[in-house]
């Protein structure tokens, strides 16, 4: 098998992503097949890959055509014993998992170890809500498809073929977004209070510095061999008023 051309932009992006030990990828806005190929390559290189928002992964083409393809697949079964498979998954994460599994030699020891390192989720699980996620540019729909190209999500297809947990996922996402909004407000409020306290402290210190400079300017220093001594400033003489000038002087007897 020929080595891939490393001048290819897509190959470079894949090599950059698979260089990490664990990849947390947000599947929203990605194309199913392109993302699955990058994930499969990372798994075969020994990486742990987490993909969430599988219900928002995109499929190109008309929705009706995708639905007919799925129902055609749904009709396939083993005549001898249908329990042997194939199994027709309806959940978005299972559909994407099956897509990645088809790109991995799962019947070998290497493939079995690789596929165990794949974790897929619908929506955003709480333990990955605050984790920095990645995107794969070579698999993004907006970068690889024309604007007028038809597309739909796996979640829409799954809902039409029997998946019933779409509303539940949307409800959980709304709750998570509301919590994040409240947490962001608290964070901004704390930041604002810290800024106000910092400004107030700076003003207080500037006033204190002015007082210190004033006292230093009023003081007089004299140097001696032993060190420095501080001489207090001379007291100002009282001013004579007009009444004191007009008063007659009485000689002491």
The topology string of helices and strands comes to HEHEEHHHEHEHHEEH
Number of contiguous helices: 9
Distance between the termini: 131 Å
Q: Which ranges are low-confidence, i.e. pLDDT below 50, for 5 or more consecutive residues?
A: 1-7, 220-226
Looking at the structure, what is the overall shape?
elongated
Largest sheet: 3 strands, parallel
Q: Indicate the percent of residues in helices.
A: 40-55%
Rg over alpha carbons:
38 Å
Structural category is mainly alpha
Number of strands: 7
Strand content: 5-15%
In which order are the strands of the major sheet placed?
A: 1-2-4
Average of the residue pLDDT scores: 82
Model description:
The protein is mainly alpha-helical. Helix content is 48%, strand content 11%. It has nine helices and seven strands, in the order H-E-H-E-E-H-H-H-E-H-E-H-H-E-E-H. The strands form three sheets. Strands 1-2-4 form a three-stranded parallel sheet. Strands 3-5 form a two-stranded antiparallel ribbon. Strands 6-7 form a two-stranded antiparallel ribbon. Helix 2 links the parallel strand 1 (22-26) and strand 2 (48-52). Helix 2 crosses helix 4. It is elongated and about 125 Å long. The termini are far apart.
């Amino acid at each position: 098998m020929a080595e891939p051309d490393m001048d290819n932009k897509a190959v470079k992006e894949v090599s950059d992503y698979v260089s990490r030990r664990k990849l947390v990828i947000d599947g929203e806005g990605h194309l199913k097949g392109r993302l699955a190929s990058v994930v499969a390559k990372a798994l075969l290189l020994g990486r742990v890959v987490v993909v969430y928002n599988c219900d928002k992964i995109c499929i190109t083409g008309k929705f009706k055509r995708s639905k007919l393809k799925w129902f055609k697949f749904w009709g396939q079964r083993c005549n001898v014993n249908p329990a042997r498979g194939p199994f027709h998954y309806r959940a978005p994460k299972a559909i994407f998992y099956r897509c990645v599994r088809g790109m991995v030699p799962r019947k070998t020891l290497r493939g079995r170890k690789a596929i165990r390192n794949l974790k897929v989720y619908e929506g955003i699980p709480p333990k990955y809500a605050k984790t920095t996620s990645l995107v794969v540019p070579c698999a993004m729909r907006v970068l690889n498809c024309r604007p007028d190209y038809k597309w739909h999500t796996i979640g829409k297809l799954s809902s039409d073929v029997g998946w019933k947990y779409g509303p539940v996922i949307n409800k959980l996402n709304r709750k998570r977004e509301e919590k994040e909004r409240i947490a962001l407000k608290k964070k901004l409020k704390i930041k604002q209070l810290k800024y106000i306290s910092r400004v107030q402290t700076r003003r207080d210190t500037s006033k204190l510095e002015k007082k210190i400079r004033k006292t230093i300017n009023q003081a007089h220093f004299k140097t001696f061999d032993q060190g420095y001594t501080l001489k207090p400033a001379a007291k100002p003489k009282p001013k004579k008023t007009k009444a004191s000038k007009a008063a007659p002087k009485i000689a002491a007897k």
